[in-house]
Structure formats: C-alpha cells, structure tokens
Amino acid sequence: MIRVLFVCLGNICRSPTAEGMLRRRIREAGLADRVEIDSCGVGPWHVGEPPDARARKAAARRGLDIGDLRGRQLVAADFSRFDYLLAMDHDNLATLEKQRPADCRAHVGLFLAYAGLADTPVPDPYFGGERGFEEMMDLLESACEGLVASLEQRLEASS
C-alpha cells in the first residue's frame, strides 16, 4: 500500500480537491486497493468543515464530487503514516520541513513537481474569483496525471 497526503493551508480548497481528483484517477487506473489518499491543512481553521463551496463547484464542473471530505490538520503521525507528503505551495512545504522528524523516510515535496513544474506552487484561489479555481483545477489535473504515472511505476517495480 502506498499512502499519499496532500497538504495546503486550511484543507478546504487545494488539498481536498487534489485528494478527490487523485482518488478518481487511481480508481480509473485500477489501483484503488493499492493507494490510499488523504489531505490536510497546516492550520486548524477549517477542521471538520467541508471543502469551500467554490472548490466543490469547480470540481463538480469536472464531474468530481468532493462534498463528503472534511478538513483536518496535519499531525505528527502523518510523517510516519504516509509515503508522500505533497505540499501545494512553498509556505506549506516549509511547515512540513520544519515539523518533519529526523527519521522521516517519506517523500516531502511540492505537488506540481509531478506536472514538470518543480518549483511552482498551486496558487491559493481562496481570496480570488472563479478563474482562480479553474486554474487550480488545471494544475491539479496535470500533476495528478504525473503522480499516477509515478505511482504505477513504483508499484510495478515492487511487484
């Protein structure tokens, strides 16, 4: 089992959308029984809340329902539970690196590296308009495609 955790600021826009999108892609690839996916925020502001209504709407336009997801905050156990901790931006990545235990063997990095955009953040659409959510969706879709390919290679190599 490979475990992937998406991390953003509040866990109501970027990371839950990435979670829902990757779940669909993993299911379509026939890997749902081999990959576990979750998301969280670095802060406590939206614990227990559903994703932002604008994120749900943007996801729904692409046939994705993320309304059942609920926000949670990053906890120390995530560093040992997950194989990948994928940050949406540099601030989230810095928080992960600061909290990362010395013995953590998980991959910690920016999610858009899987879209060939190694040092690029997913812009936070929270304070913007609808276009920001569409841009977020485009970036997440591209990175999900690359991540699925990477996970498929890893699972094939371990078989």
UniProtKB/TrEMBL annotation:
Organism expressing this protein natively: Halomonas halmophila
Top EC class of this enzyme: hydrolase
Keyword Lipid metabolism recorded: no
Record-listed E.C. numbers: 3.1.3.48
GO molecular function: protein tyrosine phosphatase activity
Record key words, sorted: Hydrolase, Protein phosphatase
Name of this protein: protein-tyrosine-phosphatase
Domain Phosphotyrosine protein phosphatase I: 2-150
Entry annotation: catalytic residues: C8, R14, D124
Keyword Transmembrane helix: no
Family, similarity comment: Belongs to the low molecular weight phosphotyrosine protein phosphatase family.
